[in-house]
Amino acid sequence: MAWTKYQLFLAGLMLTTGSLNTLSAKWADMFSAPGCSGTPKHAFSHPFVQAVGMFLGELSCLVVFHILLCHDRRKPEPTMVPGQSFNPLLFLPPALCDMLGTSIMYVALNMTSASSFQMLRGAVIIFTGLLSVAFLGRRLQPSQWIGILFTILGLVVVGLADFMSGHRNDSHKLSEVITGDLLIIMAQIIVAVQMVLEEKFVYKHNVHPLKAVGTEGFFGFFILSLLLIPMFYIHVGSFADNPRQVLEDALDAFCQIGHKPLILLALLGNTVSIAFFNFAGISVTKEISATTRMVLDSLRTVVIWVVSLALGWEVFHGLQILGFIILLLGTALYNGLHTPLMAKLPCCPGGQRAEEEEAPERERLLGGGKAANES
């Protein structure tokens, strides 16, 4: 079945904005500018400020939801289903996980390459699978266990590629690269907890996906914005890459933006892209399929890697290709992307079963909106 122009647009929008999200965050990290009170020129290293910008992008989805709802209600026959009323505090625990996981990942992005950052995020499959078995009582299929094993192998290969390239990378020390990679994997444990919490407490409510994303963005934006105040006074020594050596110096970030306005462009790119990426991802699941969404989410890793190489942000290493292929196989096996292909083979009749298996996944993604996307 051929895709319509609108479906092609949605797929392209998801791939483009998903790639821009990581690339714009990395671009901001690569700037250097003077800080406040004549502080000499130094790198823009403000992961928590960047995380606030990302949550602002998610919060904008709530604004878009209400605009679309108002527009729909003016029609003679409204078609938009706003969903049932719910207690917004249901979204507080997953929002806290999102806040912590995202902040850790932005810290890690300062230490490693954009492509490795995106590849290593595939580790979420391992922890989501294990936690869903432990706390949701889910039984994983043999192919899903094999997918987890492939993912572990792919992570080892990508980590090895980073270890080898770290010796000839001038922008990051080897110790920073290894620390960054470990932080990314650690963050995926928190993201997996977030997904399990969403599935256990949120998906059973009929919440519109834009409203779900926006509500989590609301909690994340306001809580993290308030936390920037105590972070300004918490000294962490050499761990922090800012002149005052505090956990986060938001004033220094604003001063650097004033000296180098291009940093603001990078931050706005991150904020706007996450908003459109969430919208596009939800729409792809609704208009095409959950499987297509997962494929596009994997393809953006290739886009990020190619653009990073073209811009000279990182050095080519053949092991990264091997690691990505193994991770892609792991993702395909875990998410059942192989089932529709097998169903087309004469020896593997099961097309109807494959469609039946995808239906719950489509409903799950449309019901919560956050499980298969994000930055």
Automatic annotation (TrEMBL):
Disordered: region residues: 352-375
InterPro entries, per the entry: EmrE-like, SLC35_F1/F2/F6, UCP036436
Signal peptide (residue range): 1-18
Presence of the UniProt keyword Ion transport in the record: no
Membrane topology of the entry: Multi-pass membrane protein
Ribosomal protein recorded as keyword: no
Location of the protein in the cell: Membrane; Mitochondrion
Any one cellular-component term (Gene Ontology): mitochondrion
Entry's transmembrane regions: 48-69, 89-108, 120-138, 145-165, 177-197, 218-236, 262-282
Keywords: Membrane, Mitochondrion, Signal, Transmembrane, Transmembrane helix, Transport
Domain of life: Eukaryota
Function: May play a role as a nucleotide-sugar transporter.
Oligomer and partners: Interacts with SLC25A5.
Protein name: Solute carrier family 35 member F6
